């Protein structure tokens, strides 16, 4: 699949990712990718900084400066390489507390972004994918079990969806990453599964795209985000899907895309969506982003793309 709707660089996410944004773009071009969306993290309130950000003295004000520098560099790269690859400019939104919505709205109002990804990385304001200690802290607040934390996570996700209505919903089941059974079935937890289906219904109600994200494979899980059972439930609701590598540096670009074809076949997914910038796209999905369009492509057509010849191994 020659598209990714989710990427980061060390240039604008120091300590969290590696390499310059331009180097990430150049690797995507070398792999014959058709589109790479640039989606650095949005600013977060001072109380929500990660430990390395506190040590580095990063503040909300400095994050605003970083965001402006990111948008300027992304705009330069989009123009420089426009004949070689499509480079939509977006950001990855956060939902940590209700006030997070204010920062998302500020980003949209300040910069002419093409779209954003709606993600949840925190429950009870505690990061749930940073390290095991923080995950366990969030789990303890929820009542001491993965099941209770999962319930709280999907409740937080619904609050994010209702408040922000993101055009693309990122790694829907990220919560399983550091759980005791990251490859277990959500259906074994009836209340968790009910909340997942509820969230899928809401995503469908306002017309968002659900991201299939290969970072789960990169981090040792058996399936990408979201799991097969969630993809099948989303397909029953006629939700569209897009693809992402969630790269955090040049080594991650398009990793594990070769493992997606059998996964998509098993799920029964025959069509994928991808975003495009400009009025030539088939449809519009969000009035907040006048340049955002979406197109669909069948898997049969994608299988013939030159991108596949760039993969070093079938599982790369």
From TrEMBL:
Keywords from the UniProt entry: Amino-acid biosynthesis, Histidine biosynthesis, Hydrolase
Pfam families (alphabetical): PHP
Name used for this protein in its record: Histidinol-phosphatase
NCBIfam families associated with the record: hisJ_fam
SUPFAM superfamilies: PHP domain-like
Gene3D superfamilies: Metal-dependent hydrolases
Family affiliation: Belongs to the PHP hydrolase family. HisK subfamily.
Catalysis performed (reactions): L-histidinol phosphate + H2O = L-histidinol + phosphate
InterPro entries referenced in this protein's UniProt entry, alphabetically: Histidinol_P_phosphatase_HisJ (IPR010140), PHP_dom (IPR004013), Pol/histidinol_Pase-like (IPR016195)
């Amino acid at each position: 699949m020659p598209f990714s709707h989710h990427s980061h660089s060390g240039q604008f996410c120091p300590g969290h990712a590696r390499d310059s944004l331009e180097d990430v773009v150049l690797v995507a071009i070398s792999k014959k990718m058709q589109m790479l969306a640039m989606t650095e993290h949005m600013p977060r309130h001072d109380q929500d900084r990660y430990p390395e950000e506190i040590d580095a003295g990063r503040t909300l004000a400095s994050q605003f400066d970083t965001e402006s520098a990111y948008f300027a560099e992304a705009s330069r790269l989009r123009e420089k390489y426009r004949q070689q690859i499509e480079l939509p400019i977006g950001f990855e939104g956060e939902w940590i507390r209700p006030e997070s919505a204010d920062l998302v709205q500020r980003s949209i109002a300040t910069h002419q972004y093409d779209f954003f990804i709606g993600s949840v990385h925190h429950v009870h304001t505690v990061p749930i994918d940073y390290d095991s200690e923080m995950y366990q802290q969030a789990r303890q607040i929820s009542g001491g079990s993965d099941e209770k934390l999962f319930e709280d996570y999907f409740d937080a996700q619904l609050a994010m969806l209702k408040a922000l209505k993101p055009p693309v919903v990122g790694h829907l089941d990220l919560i399983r990453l550091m759980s005791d059974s990251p490859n277990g079935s959500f259906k074994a937890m009836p209340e968790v599964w009910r909340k997942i289906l509820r969230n899928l219904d809401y995503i469908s109600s306002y017309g968002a795209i659900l991201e299939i994200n290969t970072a789960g494979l990169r981090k040792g899980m058996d399936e990408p985000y979201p799991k097969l059972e969630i993809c099948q439930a989303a397909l029953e609701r006629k939700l569209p899907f897009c693809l992402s590598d969630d790269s955090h540096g040049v080594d991650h670009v398009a990793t594990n895309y070769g493992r997606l074809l059998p996964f998509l076949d098993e799920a029964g997914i025959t069509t994928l969506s991808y975003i495009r910038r400009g009025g030539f796209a088939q449809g519009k999905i969000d009035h907040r982003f006048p340049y955002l369009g979406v197109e669909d492509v069948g898997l049969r057509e994608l299988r013939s793309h030159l991108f596949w010849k760039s993969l070093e191994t079938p599982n790369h």
